[in-house]
Amino acid sequence: xxxxxxxxxxxxxxxxxxxxxxxxxxxxxxxxxxxxxxxxxxxxxxxxxxxxxxxxxxxxxxxxxxxxxxxxxxxxxxxxxxxxxxxxxxxxxxxxxxxxxxx
Amino acid sequence: xxxxxxxxxxxxxxxxxxxxxxxxxxxxxxxxxxxxxxxxxxxxxxxxxxxxxxxxxxxxxxxxxxxxxxxxxxxxxxxxxxxxxxxxxxxxxxxxxxxxxxxxxxxxxxxxxxxxxxxxxxxxxxxxxxxxxxxxxxxxxxxxxxxxxxxxxxxxxxxxxxxxxxxxxxxxxxxxxxxxxxxxxxxxxxxxxxxxxxxxxxxxxxxxxxxxxxxxxxxxxxxxxxxxxxxxxxxxxxxxxxxxxxxxxxxxxxxxxxxxxxxxxxxxxxxxxxxxxxxxxxxxxxxxxxxxxxxxxxxxxxxxxxxxxxxxxxxxxxxxxxxxxxxxxxxxxxxxxxxxxxxxxxxxxxxxxxxxxxxxxxxxxxxxxxxxxxxxxxxxxxxxxxxxxxxxxxxxxxxxxxxxxxxxxxxxxxxxxxxxxxxxxxxxxxxxxxxxxxxxxxxxxxx
Lengths: 103, 447
Known about the structure:
- Chain A is of the alpha+beta class.
- Chain A is built from four helices and six strands; from the N terminus they run βαββααββαβ.
- Chain A has helices at 5-8, 32-38, 41-48, 92-96; strands spanning 2-4, 9-16, 19-26, 56-61, 66-71, 100-102.
- The termini of chain A are close together.
- Chain B has two domains: 5-118 and 144-305 and 426-446, no CATH class; 311-423, Alpha-Beta Plaits, CATH 3.30.70.100.
- Chain B contains ten helices and 19 strands.
- Chain B has an eleven-stranded mixed sheet, with helices on both faces.
- Chain A binds chain B through residues 10, 12, 14-19, 21, 23, 25, 27, 54, 59, 61, 63-66, 68, 70, 72-73, 78-81, 83-85, and chain B through 40-41, 44, 129-130, 212, 215, 219, 255, 258-269, 281-285, 315, 318, 353, 355, 357, 379, 381-383, 418-423.
């Protein structure tokens, strides 16, 4: 069965220059392992498509039941120079939550 | 030594709300109130104001904020630490002294300077951004090093009621009072690492008390309109308990704390500040009661030999324009308008960004339109080398009024200079933080 991450986790986006951070946090501790298995750096890179031009790194935080994604070249040259209507990429937390996984 | 110190966060960005800070200073039983008001570009813009008028360059809300907070803080023995000095901390300090005089308060201010390092830049220095370009590629007008707790602690040691800084790392606004209160050595990496986690949780103020968290039906937050700001009770080991004033809106929960702990963190195991390389991955958060979360167990290793420097440069201009279409084929008409603008600007501005926006701004209704969207707002934006070129974008949007598709309305335009920020690293030994103590009739350099 396909499930959207929105059902399983909450998220917050952050910015550093042209780098986007996405924290993905399981609502229930027991879902962390599912997220860890399915929501890989490669899967997130593919899901976000043209939004992220550079690499995606993933950090595992089992103590928090969270995954931290660090996406390079994701903010149209950076917060201060982007032409996007949301130059910080703050709305992108909800782009991550649109991702579906087999669960 | 006290068994705990309570530090509150009264602002999380330059334009943050004042009322929660007033409540925190009045009823929070605080020892310290930190006010974080300086984003990356905010200080570059402040430097531009100072270049235009040397008496300015500090936070434009300084008088409003401290005019409200100073009498309360003074009455309750709360010491204020803030980066509202922005590009001109000394002028900010003098303004606070004159403000205190008007309020009949006897206030001692300590000003931290030394972050302005524009004279130390060299063209061959490289940015730390992905491309690593030399600074000679940029039209630079400002550079500010992120100073740390070691620059702020001596200011607190003067006994000042208010400490004003320019660019410092946001968590250092919290780490410094904690380290000062407990007399920590500033190479006590474990404790500094833990205090940095606390500082990071607090630095965005309302973002840990339920601000920027709510989603109706799924992540509800009570009384968000009257969101309270956080404090943390920190013990001599650097562990803390987050809380807020009873009766204020919002909520501190495990979930709000987790979101904030990871906010803007590019390496949870190695969060670099001027004070320490902090390990947030070892932090343990626990909800211990309503609006109470304990923060324990972070770690740290020795600080890096360099300061991060935020460099402001002139990045050309931006031109923008918008126009709405509604009803049948709104999207097609908006797309056609975008293509027309692209064609008309092709020779002068080859690289345009074209966005389609909209739900209900045109008519507050969709007349049962079968296919969303009922309305579409076209936005065109471009980076240009000159203001004249930037203004052409808006001009072509206006021209759609008589030279474009049917039914366009709500024309808007903007053209402005763009200020960019890049970062570089500077050896710590080249930067000399200094303290100036200001009192009503006296100014003195502190040792």
